[in-house]
Amino acid sequence: MLAIVNSCALMGANAYMVSVEVDVSGGMPAFDIVGLPDAAVRESRERVRTAIRNSGLEFPFQRITVNLAPADIKKEGANFDFAIATGILLATGQIANDDRVARTVWLGELSLDGGLRKINGVLPMSVILPSNGIGQMLLPEVNAKEGALLGGTAVYGLRDLRQFVEFWQGRQQVEPCAVDVAEIFSRAQHWHSGVDMADVKGQQAVKRAMEIAAAGRHNLLMVGSPGSGKTMLARRMPTILPDLTLEESLAITRMYSICGLLPEGQPLMTERPFRAPHHTASPQSIIGGGRVPRPGEVSLAHNGVLFLDELPEFSRDVREALRQPLEDKVVTVSRVQGRMDFDASFQLVAAMNPCPCGYLGDPLKRCSCTPYQVSRYMGRVSGPLLDRIDMQVNVQRVEFADLNGAERPESSAVIKERVMAARERQLRRFAGAGVFANADMSRAQLETFCRLTPDAAGLMEQAFRQLNLSARAHDRLLKVARTIADLAGEDMIGLAHVAEAVQYRGLEQFAEHR
After folding, report:
1. Are residues 86 and 206 both part of a single domain?
2. Residue 167: burial class (beta carbons within 10 Å; 0-12, 13-18, 19+)
3. What pLDDT digit, counting tens, does each position of 365-410 carry?
4. Residue 230 belongs to a domain with what CATH number?
5. Are residues 278 and 147 part of one domain?
6. Which of 133, 176, 266, 511 could connect to 383 by a Cys-Cys bridge, CB 3.0–4.6 Å?
7. What are the residue ranges of helices labelled H in 134-188?
8. Which domain holds residue 379?
9. Contacts of 92 (CB under 8 A, 6+ apart)
């Protein structure tokens, strides 16, 4: 007898429907799975067989053929276990095969005792269900809240195969899962990470640069001696960024769901991500890809911060691979199976030493590097990459008086208020244009919204010539000046705004192509 049940699979960041066709017929006992299954899917034969028996149900001593359609796309993972087991139970008449089957999707991995285990990618799978006529989703209890985030589909979280049979036959009541997204966000507003800008003594110039970067969503590079506080400052960047919107939160949750990184008991990501990969990371781990393409660090930092400490120590392939996502806000991974796009709209914060020994320009320790070593070290950060980093700031050694001063520095909350006020100005300016921060302005928007006073225009021309700026670097400098003006509450970009923005383009001379 034939039974057909619905399931889902992932292809990159998107999901697609999979029809699980199960045929149980006479002949030599066998259990075959076709439809381009990978090793994890093929191994489901043993999990399903044992789970059905250990759940007190009958596993047929007949020929079982399972087809996963569409058959020309490779199927991966263990989330088909539940659907295959259900198909066998339907085909053998152990549960009712009625009109509910066509409106239901089954997702879940089976343990040998029949329990349903957590799976990845439930959120992107739930997105496609309403348009495919699916009215209810059956999945592991631990995934239920994630599946119910979007609404539109009745989501039933189940513990094991036994409970499913009782529920399907009407002998046990299971309430659909409901999630109050507003309540989750309300709780998040009272959450504190434990880090604050008030922890950082001194470094007023760097804090100012970080405030500008946060207000306009600009990329930032910090250059300073070891121990000057670059990493400590970078880790506090998320504390002054604007709160997430629901749309941004769902986009982040989507990526973390695909990678199985959602925190236990937390169906929705409510904080901006802060990703800090080690400098030994491979290009695939940073950008994404692999044999089975998965999001990389740039996508896990979507709508958040990607922090690259010791930037020159990352491999050249990693550094140069960042250029495209910094510009396009998306990563495209092309494989034989097809092309996959991953969102990568992140804010880059990087840190590096001024030379190999780290003490060039330090007032207390003497640099031991030759000019050639310094030039070669700084040249690792190429001109095209520097072009895409809006702001470059020197981080000086903290003075003793700052460390032992009684005055408490500004808290993150105070700085965040100013950042939010500047962002509100930008949101009003770009209303309906799909742009949410100055860093994302197009060339046409620059001409419309970045009007300079005569003095400011003269200084901009002088900076363009003396710093040998590219057209891209010129535009990014103009965007930074626009953000500085927004923080000051000014409509026109004045001389002081451009002068401060020029201070953050100090490394152009070290680019390897200069």
Report:
1. no
2. middle
3. 899 999 999 999 988 998 889 889 999 999 988 877 767 777 788 9
4. 3.40.50.300
5. no
6. 511
7. 144-147, 161-168, 181-188
8. 197-432
9. 1, 24, 58, 60
